[in-house]
Structures
1.
Amino acid sequence: MRGRPRGFDRDAALGAAIELFWRRGYEGTSVSELTEAMGIRPGSLYAAFGDKRALFAEVVDTYGRSPVGAFMAEALAEEPTAFGAFARILREAADIYPDPAHPAGCLTISAATNVAVQDAEVEAFLRELRNANVKVFRERLRVACEGGELPGDADVNALAGYFAAVIQGMSQRARDGATREELAQVARMAMGAWSQCGLTDLEEGGGVR
């Protein structure tokens, strides 16, 4: 037996939730604000998505598969060199984070910076996602060392942490009003860390414009 249709566009409702959580953060977004933005009743929210925390987890997953959330993973998968991948990540972060078509910055970086004690799991959830990115960065850099793109003794832990810190900083600067041009300059300067490792010139492999 088929259930009753929900009576609302789930994708559109989820898109509205993404926008609200991204703009206001987890703690700053109430269930009543969510239902108003999503155009549904509280009962429909709980029936379709579960509670607020479950909705947020689906929001983060959907965001992570969207063009604005997946650009880092795509660069790492598509660029033939690690240098090209990180240069592209920083270049695209400079384009995406201040884009007025959506809230500034990155949802997974800024959505749970301050949460109540009872919502500590949300903060931990996003922290684990960010730390997972650092691990992916580290692995790509390790492969670059093995392939001769970086010196064999390059400190991949420090370099991965550095790029993660730059990206998170770019997100916050965008939320503080930094322009694309300002962030592009940060990206160019950040890639200088690569040349300090002793190999690749900044113009090689599709450097930051």
2.
Amino acid sequence: MNLDFSQIVPYIPFMLKGIGVTLGFVSVSILFGFVLGTGFALLKISKVKGLVWFADAYTSIFRGTPLILQLMIIYFAVPQLTGYDMPPFLAAVLAFGLNSSAYVSEIIRAGIQAVEKGQTEAAQALGIPYRPMMKDLILPQALKNILPALMNEFITLTKESAIVSTISYLDLMRRAQVVGADIYRNFEPLLFVGLIYYFLVMGLSLLGKAMERRLRFGD
């Protein structure tokens, strides 16, 4: 085995810039997915069957098809139909955000339904309108319970973010591919970026555990 990591040293700053690029679009995607997922979660627990069916169908489609297929449709197929030249960043955020919202909606729905029904009944008995009840009473408790699951979703998106390299978005993975093509060696840059992904995921995992401990301490 002939390994030579010295060749990637000049490219290290270029690859390290991919950390901010990756975390940037993943953060925007998870925020978009959280907002949209919360809306779909509320639709799923509504009493209007049409809204429930729509939310369930949405979730089924985005959870039942590969994320990379969704990314390709948004980046390549949508411009074909609309004539709009989709920027890689926007395509990545839309694909990851829409996909994440399907999973987040299920997480939040489960969290809402895990809150004791007595609290909802008490709020209704006091005449508290539905929106303030959800915003100030039910959702805060649900979010506290589902924080670990939401953190896992963020970690999953961070790992899966590597597929945006297929649309030439200069994330960590794409930068490793660029370096590999430039020096005609792929193992070293890929290993280097793989270690970055590992430390990112471990860092996010530790952050999630710290937040969980803080919430438990707050109880």
3.
Amino acid sequence: MYTKLLASATLLVSVTSHSACPEFLDQEYRKLHSTESINLCEAFEGKNLLIVNTASHCGFTPQFKALEAVYQQYKEQNFTVIGFASDDFKQEDAKEAKAAEICYINYGVTFTMLAPTSVRGDDANPTFKALAAATEAPGWNFNKYLVSADGKSIRYFGSRVKPNDPKLTQTIDALTGK
């Protein structure tokens, strides 16, 4: 009886915590060059998110270094960066291992990178469909979407806005209460 009650309480807590999470974040994705998958709500509950569509062979690829710096600067303030690798603009390495090497070794990325997925059009993953509907769809690689911890506020920053641009960092400051 006690075991059933404990299992029911655990299930209720898990259902309750997910009910506060917006559907577009209650999604599971595979990590880059890994068999491990994560649910965005479970992994990043209560955090403000900077979601970025990335590619390993783009003129904006050096933004990985600045994205990592922003992540390091704000990670202790309920903030994280999530990179969605994508070949929608034909600039992602065909080999996921090579894309991972570019991110993790060449640019020192420690924030969460997800395996290639579509980020635009009818094939876009559910997270990017919602981001595009709330703001605008990515027109190229390295679009940035700043999402409040409750998922209700989404701000869009295009590819040309560098991660350390004051327009973006001041918005992160306001969101994190820095």
